[in-house]
Amino acid sequence: MTVPLKGVYLDFETRSPVDLVSAGGENYARHPETRVLIAAWAVDDGPIQAWWPEWAAPGDPAPLQGLVEALQDRPLYAWNAAFERKIWNNVFTTHPSVSPLPITHFRCVAAQAAAANLPQRLDSAAKVLKLGQKNPAKSLMSCCAWLSTPGASTRRARSGSFGRFKQYCIDDVWLLREIHKKLPPFSATDWQDYAVSEAINDRGVPIDEALCIAASEYYKDELEVLNTKFKQLTGVSLQHHVKKGLWLKEQLKDREDLLQHVMVWDKGSKRLSCGQDARRDLHEALLQEETRSFDHVVLFLELLDLGGATSSRKYDAMVSRAHKRRIHGAFVFSGAGQTGRYSSRGAQFHNFRRDGYSADEVVKFVNLIRDKQPLSQTQEVLGRLLRAAVCVPEGRALVWGDLSQIEARMFAWLSDTPGGARVLDAFRAYDAGTGRDYYSLTAEMMFKKTVRKEDPERQYGKVASLFLQYGGAVGAYRSGARAYGFKVTDETAQHYTKLWRDANPWAVKFWEKCMSAAREAYYAPGTIFEAGRLRIGFHPSLLGGSLFTRLPSGRHLIYPQTRMVTAISKFTGRPEKQLCYSKLVGPKWVTRQLYGGLLSQGPTQGASADVLRAALRQLPNAIGHVHDEVICEVDEDAVDAEKQLLKKVLSTPPVWAAGLPLATNVSAELFWGK
Questions:
Q1: Which of 9, 105, 275, 537 is deepest in the core (most CB within 10 A)?
Q2: CA distance 342 to 344
Q3: Cα distance between residue 284 and residue 294, in whole Å
Q4: pLDDT higher than 60, residue 139
């Protein structure tokens, strides 16, 4: 898609003694020794210019005045624009002709690429769009090495290596502009939401740095003990992944039935896995053995669990990325491209456990950790304490609230069906204090009996509600059951899946409508088809031909390189014509099948994200957010007013979501709690 070119396209190449990946952009840009090596830019569709402050003969550098003047009436486009903004305002402004620029002046092309479901790395996006590949990174790294050496001579700097380094920066600007030309344009609201997101990142998340350091040291001390025990048991270190697997395989060589619990399919063949799910399955099987001949394997699995926890790494990440006890730049706008939801980088706040401790429990465990007293369940405690590490300074307070069961509500609302309307009525009654909770009602519809909160059937209904809503079946239900602490057979999971679908035929029909609309749209480019409140179409020239879904907010979800292929169906096992698209999975750009569940899941999560975006526009004290939850920071004497504001904002649907019942629970404390 061609967009009118009116903007400045900019790329910096920089050097610093700070490691950008581990320390984050804020620490990198604010370090006094961080320098701009080269700046390259283009104005509109004009030629690319380059400037460098050192290593050049007099008269070589292009003047900066033209860049500064062009920015007076043009936005500045960059890839991962938050970095360019930090460098511009903290480093580049040392040049006398350069002044700081506000957030609203910057446009992030990486965010646009993510919103189009494309890779968020410049070189990867360029490859997908067939724009060629960047110069080898190895060459760039060698340039950076000698450019960072104190006293590098002018002659050496003007050598062929420097020429390649400069060309690397120029190539980045060319790719940046070419990618931008091909991307769907952001609306004014999208750019407003991007600016709101960056303002939140600039405020930063306050942390208890002392707690983070103490928790990290506590775990490292325990890890040494765990590693000693593991070596005594197996003869290898916890870090030796291949040797661990070989040891386990040797212990189970005479029990093929047990070994199968840790064998997984990978690229058409089976291999042994010591992953979390495989370990859990084997552990459960071993506990059912009548003899204790495999107790050493049970110990092996337990030590792996204790030694592989991620909570300690999160504490480390918070410490390394903190600037004046605040973490900046933690939230990535539209980072989850298939939905447009935010993602998180660095400490990964989105992955913090939600079952945090009460205030009294936090005080107790923090004191134990700081005094290095023994804990009965170290990883459990450290994991649940993560939220408490988000803590305000004296005189301040945190206020937070979540959008209660937003996906269940949004899914029913988007379906625009009588069955979905009944679900919404049930939520309205519950919110008003006159109705039953949704999980109990779901279980009652499944099992045709009265279900109370303490009944096991409620848990079965809860898992069904959470894991079957988007077309999931046996595998999804079993995964959900495991997450909620119970185990079911394939037969039981199949039975519960049927009960849920029979109780919610409107949901099944919504999946079918989404899939039918997608197929019809593919064969009729330019025509829009309806599926509930969604509008689905196909644009044959957008990103290699793309299916798109227009959400009620007006935002679009995009499925790049949509095409019809003949392949073995994951549902029937027979060759069938399938509508597929391309997406990034890990480092690979792969083909994935489109189906009704996926075509309803993306819009449900995307529209839920739009509710969150609308809320953040009205919350100037927001310092963070996690999927359906917003965290604000205020003075202690403003807590009551902030709670009222947050409750009002999160309980009021946007204009485009009229009739969507919303509810929230708001809390306040010195630290981020449950």
A1: 9
A2: 7
A3: 12
A4: no
Segments making up each domain of the chain, as ranges: 8-186, 406-605, 606-669
Q: Which residue bears the tokens 């394997």? A: 297
Between 373 and 239, the higher pLDDT residue: 373
List helix spans (H) across 351-405.
359-370, 378-385
Alpha helix stretches (DSSP H) within 63-187: 65-70, 81-90, 109-115, 122-128, 137-147, 154-157, 160-182
DSSP state of 358: P
d(CA 208, CA 32): 25
The two three-digit tokens of residue 216, written as one number: 């990290």
Q: Which two tokens stand for residue 304?
A: 């792996």
Tokens 């408490």 belong to residue: 388
Q: At what angle do helices 490-503 and 474-483 cross, to 10 degrees?
A: 100
Query: Going by C-beta distance under 8 Å and a sequence separation of 6 or more, which residues neighbour residue 228?
Result: none
Query: What is the pTM assigned to this prediction?
Result: 0.89
Concatenating the DSSP letter of every residue in 397-440 gives: EEEEEEETTHHHHHHHHHHTSHHHHHHHHHHHHHHTTSS--HHH
On the question of pLDDT at 279 being above 60, the answer is yes
Q: 436 with 451: CB under 8 angstroms?
A: no
Q: Between the CA of residue 238 and those of 232, 301, 338, what are the distances in Å?
A: 11, 11, 36
What is the structure's pLDDT at 257? 86
